[in-house]
Amino acid sequence: MQWLTTVSTWMIPLLILLVLIVGTIKQVPTYETFVEGGKEGIKMAISLLPFLLGMMVAIAIFRASGAMESIVALFSPLLQLVGVPSEIVPLAMVRPISGTAALGMTTEIIGTHGPDSFLGRLASTMQGSTDTTLYIITVYFGAVGIKRMGDALKVGLIADFIGIIASIIVVSIVFGS
Amino acid sequence: MVNLIWVFMAAGGIIFAMFNGTMTDVNEALFQTADDAVMLSISLMSVMIFWLGLMKIAEKAGLLDMLSRLFRPLIKRLFPDIPAEHPAMGYILSNISANLFGLGNAATPMGIKAMEEMKKLQPGSDEASRSMITFLAINTSSVTLIPTTVIAIRMKYESVAPTEIVATTIVATLISTLGAVLVDRFFYTLRERRAK
Known about the structure:
The complex is a heterodimer.
Chain A: H1 2-25, H2 30-64, H3 67-81, H4 89-94, H5 99-113, H6 118-129, H7 133-144, H8 152-175
Helix pairs in contact in A: 2-7, 5-6, 6-8
Chain B: H1 2-20, H2 23-60, H3 63-78, H4 87-100, H5 104-120, H6 130-140, H7 148-156, H8 165-195
Helix pairs in contact in B: 2-5, 3-4, 4-5, 6-8
């Protein structure tokens, strides 16, 4: 598995090298084009700020008040019934809402139970196989001014749920509980 | 929908805090997070300037076209309402490829560009199109081959085999992405039926 780590480290620099070499061969004014594209990046980040701030503050209020914890506590007996360890419930609930919070929880679980424990492996797999739906919707739709999002949230959340269930089943089969 | 969720979390949290006696925590979290959001936007800016600059070169050099030609058959089936030659295809593909290699940071600007291009297909409308919803579904189910961040955390906590979760992650990702595509198709059919 060492090659995987090597691939991840080499990936980005090699990609940059490829783009720059092909750009030069195709006689693209590379530096000027880079600056031109970069300016769009500034505009994008600034226009994202109100969306991000609004959503993050609401989530923070919800978490800090203890409301999120209570909801988690409400659901955990049900999950324990089907053999899902309750320590994983907060992560599963937070994952679609906040990426940084989920990463924090994954780190905490790995730190407390050890990276090679069942919970550690489960948290790792869950973190890698799902994404922060609310953040992606906020950022992607916010940046281009989509206000009516149709079925996007429903579809995104169901996809997250499938990912969470899949992680539990796959990790149980591969590593055993 | 997003209005309701937003108010539910913020107002719900404040009301809960009244009874839970956590108003001080709420106050603290409120202003701390507002600060964090500004910091996050600024740190996103560096990544966005760099990758959008680089992607502009890739676009002008014809690399995005090459990529979309390679995967066109598959992507065409997933996004039937985007014309095959449209630049949105190239950005969708670069976003998915960036996610595959766990380059979450590089994926975001490309995903936004993809959205922009998809929006050009329906000028003036502020409603999410069919392809936008499909794109989001694929994105939120996170097609990851190499979960770089998780591997880094596992290494930090001295795992015997930090990368042993790569295989389980790939399988779980495949299942959730497949599920996302099916759920997306299902809701699309529902919408179509309702429209008739």
